[in-house]
Amino acid sequence: MSEPDGGTQPGSGAPSDDEIVDELPEDLDLAGFVGPYTFPNNNRRRIPATIYVVAGVACMAVSVLRGDESPLVNAGTLWGGALLALFGLYGWVAGWTLKVEESDALVTASAQVGFPVGHASAQMAWRGWLSRPTWRILLYSAENPPSKRGIVLVDGVSGSVLEWFVEDNPEDWSTLDPARTGLTG
Questions:
Q1: Measured in whole angstroms, how far is the alpha carbon of residue 72 from the centre of its chain?
Q2: If pLDDT is split at 50, 70 and 90, which confidence band does 182 have?
Q3: In terms of pLDDT, which residue wins out, 12 or 146?
Q4: Cα–Cα dist 87/101, whole Å
Q5: Tens digits of per-residue pLDDT, 31-70?
Q6: 109, 152 in Cβ contact below 8 A?
Q7: At CB < 8 A and 24+ separation, what contacts does 130-134 make?
Q8: What is the C-alpha to C-alpha distance for residues 141 and 171, in angstroms, rounded to an integer?
Q9: Is the pLDDT of residue 5 over 80?
Q10: Is the Cα torsion angle 155, 142, 169, 147 positive or negative in sign?
Q11: What does pLDDT average to over the chain?
């Protein structure tokens, strides 16, 4: 009997734990990242919405044209088609075009809070029944450690500030070792 190939468990043919490597997919690997990240546009929702409308209209058309003649088509086909078409119309309306990029929302939020901004973070969210895209911007002042923080909601379609709040930073960083954190006075 011959020796198994290096790396396989004897008698199993499966790779050993030494051969299994966990790695990120190529599109998520930041090592090769060049340039700014572009957030996907919200209007991509209109593609499946169009498919739903077409399928719903087709179901309704089949129900109207063959409803009395076919044992496979009944009132459920008509109602299902109508609901599918209505859901598709909702998806079409909720597929807003994102006109405000993340960097523009950060600039708008920085102007709103009234203090020099150090660290900031942006997150895409959706508001209301019509899923209007909204940027949630979390900002910290430029001091080290930051003395203020704020949150600003910026509309992703118009670029207007919807809501904002600023407060003194309640986090207590006095117990941290400045040598380890880089927080030197």
A1: 41
A2: low
A3: 146
A4: 28
A5: 766 666 667 788 888 999 999 999 999 999 998 888 777 7
A6: yes
A7: 130/93, 130/94, 130/96, 131/42, 131/45, 131/94, 131/96, 132/96, 132/156, 132/157, 133/42, 133/96, 133/98, 133/157, 134/162
A8: 13
A9: no
A10: negative
A11: 82
Residue length of the chain? 185
- Would you identify the CATH topology of the domain 102-181? Nuclear Transport Factor 2; Chain: A, (3.10.450)
Q: Which of 118, 86, 90, 108 is nearest to 156 (CA)?
A: 108
Please enumerate, as own/partner, the contacts of 123-126 that have beta carbons within 8 Å and a separation of 24 or more. Answer: 124/39, 124/156, 126/42
Least confident of 5-9, 41-45, 52-56, 178-182: 5-9
Reply yes or no on whether the pLDDT at 94 is more than 80.
yes
Could you tell me the two tokens for 8?
Answer: 């396989």
Q: pTM here? A: 0.65
Pure H helices in 95-163: 102-113
Amino acid occupying residue 58: A
Q: Which DSSP letter does residue 146 get?
A: -
Distance CA 134, CA 15 (A): 47
Token pair for 184? 């030197």
113: region left, alpha or beta (phi > 0 left; psi from -120 to 50 alpha) = alpha
